[in-house]
Design goal:
The chain is of the alpha+beta class and 390 residues long. The chain is built from 16 helices and twelve strands. Bound molecules: protoporphyrin IX containing FE (HEM). Residues 52, 75-76, 87, 142, 223-224, 227-228, 231-232, 235, 268, 273-274, 277, 302, 329-331, 333, 335-339, 342-343 line the site of protoporphyrin IX containing FE (HEM).
């Protein structure tokens, strides 16, 4: 039995591109303590798949964590029955039935509306002008905060993400996060006061109908905004970039050999929008001969697992022909993403086919290279594109 080996990383390089470091970790130290992140990282798929369901050891309850302190204790920071009770309550808002009967047509309307405005222009930053507002419109419907402004939705989400990663205690970051959560509380109060909106299938409505205490409702709405805005945004822009920069793969879609679901599934394997999910060790445990002690911080590195050579040959390649069923971009345990069906419908059934069908000769703007960044959350920061204006 041994303590986890130490593995040092260059944080700036890790943010630019975590994959070379994660590959080294998988080979040399698949369970390792990274002092720069003050956490033990699990980078092999099998280790994460074994550890994540073991909630007695790898607990989501992190009372001292920044997420609890800044956003309230949402269902993602609970274990066992306490988690399940809330998961069951929100299910009707995110179930496959809700997605196909309520949300998909609303997603399509939002995409059509955005593309109608874009089509005559011939040029855009696809992150800012399509992926971001479309993701926000979808989230407005799902949460029930339909009066929110899409740019605000994105800014709230980013402020909370920055706040919960603010381990250095930067006051300005914390203040922005408090401002965002106060604005969300105000938006919730306004939506609750418009009683008719509580009759729909939105998250706010299903939680109100179940008489969930108001502080839990607020915490869960904040969770869904922090976790449901940037990932679909990054998957829409990222999958578009993947196709435009891999014409050989795009031609498989054009020829009908692969479909938009393959495009989405392979993208979230290749560049996982959520690269990591944290846990707190609740009691002594040993995994692969490595000791874990109470209160150790553990990061399940989903992005690393999805490039594990044991499951994916040439894992750094974006390859639509591969089998992605062993990838875990949505997690591998009881906290499996509650928004997975909504995301697939938004990205694979609506956003990508609508974009590629509507904008003729869509291509990268070679004069402005796209920017990519992040490791806990990873995605395109900008994606300049051109097409033939209609
Ligand atoms: C491409 C899009 C998305 C990806 C890749 C993604 C990925 C993830 C991941 C990795 C987790 C943590 C799983 C774990 O720790 O085991 C998670 C949790 C969660 N996600 Fe997503 N997500 C996406 C979109 C969404 C959307 C659109 C929503 C809601 C509208 C959403 C709602 C949630 C919720 C509520 C949880 C917490 C579940 C729980 O604790 O039981 N996600 N997601």
């Amino acid at each position: 039995m041994a303590s986890p080996p130490r593995f040092d990383i260059d944080v700036a390089a890790f943010w630019q591109d975590p994959y070379p470091t994660l590959s080294k970790m998988r080979q040399q130290a698949p369970i390792a303590y990274v002092p720069q992140l003050d956490a033990i990282l699990l980078t092999r798929r099998d280790d994460i798949v074994e550890a994540e369901p073991n909630i007695e050891v790898f607990s989501s309850h992190q009372p001292e964590g920044l997420m609890n302190r800044l956003m309230g204790q949402n269902l993602m920071r609970k274990d066992g029955e306490a988690h399940l009770v809330e998961r069951r309550i929100i299910f009707p808002a995110l179930s496959p039935k809700a997605v196909s009967e309520c949300w998909r047509s609303q997603f399509q309307n939002a995409a059509d509306h955005l593309l109608q405005h874009l089509e005559p222009k011939g040029t855009a930053d696809l992150v800012k002008d399509y992926a971001l507002p479309l993701s926000a419109e979808a989230l407005k419907s799902i949460t029930g905060l339909i009066a929110a402004n899409p740019q605000d939705m994105d800014a709230w989400s980013q402020a909370m993400i920055d706040g919960i990663a603010n381990y250095g205690g930067d006051h300005a970051v914390e203040a922005r996060c408090h401002q965002a959560t106060a604005s969300i509380d105000a938006a919730i109060d306004a939506a609750v006061s418009r009683r008719e909106e509580t009759q729909d299938q939105s998250l706010l409505s299903v939680m109100l109908r179940a008489d969930m205490p108001m502080d839990q409702i607020r915490a869960n709405i904040k969770l869904v905004i922090s976790g449901g805005q940037n990932e679909p945004r990054d998957a829409i822009a990222g999958a578009t970039w993947a196709l435009l920069s891999h014409p050989d793969q795009y031609s498989k879609v054009v020829r009908g050999e692969r479909n938009w679901t393959h495009v989405f599934d392979e993208y979230v394997r290749w560049i996982s929008p959520i690269g990591m999910s944290p846990r707190r060790v609740a009691k002594h445990h040993t995994l692969r001969g490595i000791n874990f002690a109470p209160d150790d911080r553990v990061f399940f590195m989903f992005g690393a697992a999805n490039r594990d050579e044991a499951y994916f040959s040439e894992p750094d390649r974006y390859d639509l022909s591969r089998d992605t069923t062993k990838s875990i971009p949505f997690g591998a345990g009881p906290h499996f993403c509650a928004g997975a069906w909504a995301s697939r419908a938004l990205v694979a059934y609506v956003a990508l086919p609508s974009l590629f069908n509507r904008l003729k000769d869509l291509r990268l703007d070679e004069s402005k290279p796209p920017e990519v960044g992040g490791w806990a959350f990873r995605g395109l920061l900008s994606l300049p594109v051109l097409w033939e204006p209609a």
